[in-house]
Amino acid sequence: MSVSAPHPRCVLHADMDAFYASVEQRDRPELRGRPIVVGGAGQRGVVAAASYEARVFGIRSAMSSVEARRRCPDLVFIAGDMRRYAAESRRIFEIFRSFSPRVEGLSLDEAFLDLTGSERLLGPPSEVGGRLRQRVREETGLAISVGIGPIKMVAKIASGAAKPDGLLEVPPDAVRDFLDPLPVRKIWGVGPVAGERLEGLGYRTIGDLARADPDTLRRRLGDWGVGIGRLARGEDLREVEPHREVVSISEENTFERDVADRSRLEATILTHAEAVARRLRRQGLLARTVVLKWRPGRRVREGPRGYPVRSRQKTLEEATDDGEVVARVARVLLEDALVEPVRLLGVGVGGLVGEPGRTTQLSLFEAGGPASEAPRRRRLNRALDVLADRFGDGVVRRASQAEARHATLSGQWKKGSRDTHGPDVGPRESGESDA
Fold it and tell me: Among 3, 82, 341, 432, which has the minimal tally of Cβ within 10 Å of its Cβ?
């Protein structure tokens, strides 16, 4: 009996073109052909998405709004509407799922699709990608770029090379020819700091890294160097994962002005803690660790990393999904850590575990007071969740909560957040690529 060879892997990366900005231009004809950005227009605003007309001026996502306006005085700023973008995202992902049951969402506008073994049913991958692009255009009026390759990294780089509104397929036997001339920073996971380090060692292109001896990479860069060497050679065993476990949940905001007032910081902590706890309860999870994150208001160096991120964390005696518990621990961390005004403040939780039939009680001391309080707290949280599910997460707030407004939009998929994504969002959190 003969055994057929396994199908070669085939991964498609679909990425909407300037998603937020394109939605605005589609819905508002007066914006078409004009340089626009979606994001905060204030002194601490950040560009979340830039139209292609704005990119002519070198404007890109994550750039400060001040710098963007300096480059283009005629730039139009749009505050943005995450509810509308999320609704559009759901339509787009329904199209993705009609082509493959294995869809791994990276953000509202970006996903991997596993096409492995589907050629007999759907046709050649390039034709599948073409039909997907046509469907998205016909049903949403928006452009999407597609990259196809034998591994995820190649597919992702290919979709970027195909922009705007294009398709690029890299066959398995052409991977090295495609990757070798590219800058080493194109490797998935190599950021500015790692890129500088690699370039300082003489690895300027992906080909340079691919040709490097693995033992040399290990000696110079440790296991991480060996791993990115494999990626440079086109060796990537990561599968398209439709369902990925959440490892942490967080909420944060950037203040319009530096804040030193403890009462305001504590009120902001409570707002974030309640939002995080609500997302825990919606996913049936409990958290064992509370994390406080902040950026000091004082710049320590020039460039986008001039405001370093600081954090403190504490492990609980008992896992919890109660916002008051999370807030109480975060306030203690605040008291221990902060000694200067801050520009950004966030609260997160980690060490997530499944909720065992609501049998977990709050710790007598650590989690939130006497054990007799636990049932009352659970009833209160359930009542708040019912109201939030029906009317939105912001409909009810505790008296001591703050209005924690973001300086710009967040492109993250926040699993468990009902205000933006509804009940069917993907589990992975990631910023919009804005490519």
Answer: 3
Report the run of H or E that residue 111 belongs to, with start and end: strand 110-114
* Sign (positive or negative) of CA dihedral 435, 188, 171, 122: negative
pLDDT of residue 23: 96
Backbone angles phi, psi at 246, to 5 degrees: -75, 130
Q: Domain 182-232 maps to which CATH number in 1.10.10.10, 3.40.30.10, 3.40.50.12780, 1.10.150.20? A: 1.10.150.20
Specify the pTM: 0.69
Q: Which of 104, 110, 169, 251 is catalytic?
A: 110
Active-site annotation holds for 110: yes
The 10s digit of each residue's pLDDT in 105-129 is 888 899 999 999 888 889 999 999 9
CB 316 within 8 A of CB 363: yes
Mean pLDDT calculated for residue range 366-371: 46
Asked if 348 and 412 count as a contact pair (C-beta separation under 8 A), the reply is no
